[in-house]
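Inverse folding, one chain.
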């Protein structure tokens, strides 16, 4: 039985919104809380949004096997990875786990957990631009361009690593969820928690 689902996508694709709505609709799903060495952003809480570690702590956890899969983002000097105590606890508690990861994590979860992988993307780069500006109206042109370039690169380089691509059109979230539910049923994920 499949227990891990990968949902990924570039900035502005709606990956987080889709993940949260899926959890709301099917409470058997929970999001994996990723470990990182980046600093918390506004309102982010340790152990709820991320497990925040220093570089030293992160490297120690790699050594002692608590972090088995990770990525180092060179241009930001930041690590992201799977914190296994969190993953294993959620599996023991009978949940399906949604992992928002990159292609490194995707390969790992496909190999060791037979996870199905879904790449979420907006209908166009223009749609991503609209969403980014709606979220952060004061974003500079340079920052906007950088994010759009990153999104274009991610779509080009990452999409091929995923089994399914779902286009999340503006204002059509129920349709997106319907497509994902169909994938979950096809892949054999339980949508209700087993009674004890």
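Residues assigned per position:
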């Amino acid at each position: 039985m499949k227990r891990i689902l990968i949902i990924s996508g570039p900035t502005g694709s709606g990956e987080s919104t889709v993940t949260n709505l899926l959890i709301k609709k099917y409470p058997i799903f929970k999001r994996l809380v990723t470990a990182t060495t980046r600093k918390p952003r506004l309102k982010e809480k340790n152990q709820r949004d991320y497990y925040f570690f220093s570089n030293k702590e992160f490297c120690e956890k790699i050594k002692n096997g608590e972090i088995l899969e990770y990525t180092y983002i060179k241009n930001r000097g930041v690590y992201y990875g799977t914190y296994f105590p969190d993953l294993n606890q959620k599996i023991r508690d009978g949940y399906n786990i949604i992992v928002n990861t990159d292609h490194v994590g995707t390969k790992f979860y496909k190999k060791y957990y037979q996870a199905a992988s879904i790449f979420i993307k907006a209908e166009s780069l223009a749609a991503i631009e609209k969403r980014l500006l709606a979220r952060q109206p004061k974003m500079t042109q340079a920052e906007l361009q950088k994010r759009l370039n990153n999104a274009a690169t991610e779509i080009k380089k990452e999409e091929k690593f995923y089994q399914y691509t779902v286009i999340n059109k503006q204002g059509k979230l129920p349709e997106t969820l319907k497509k994902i539910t169909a994938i979950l049923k096809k892949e054999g994920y339980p949508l209700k928690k087993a009674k004890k």
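The radius of gyration is 17 Å. The chain has one domain: 4-187.
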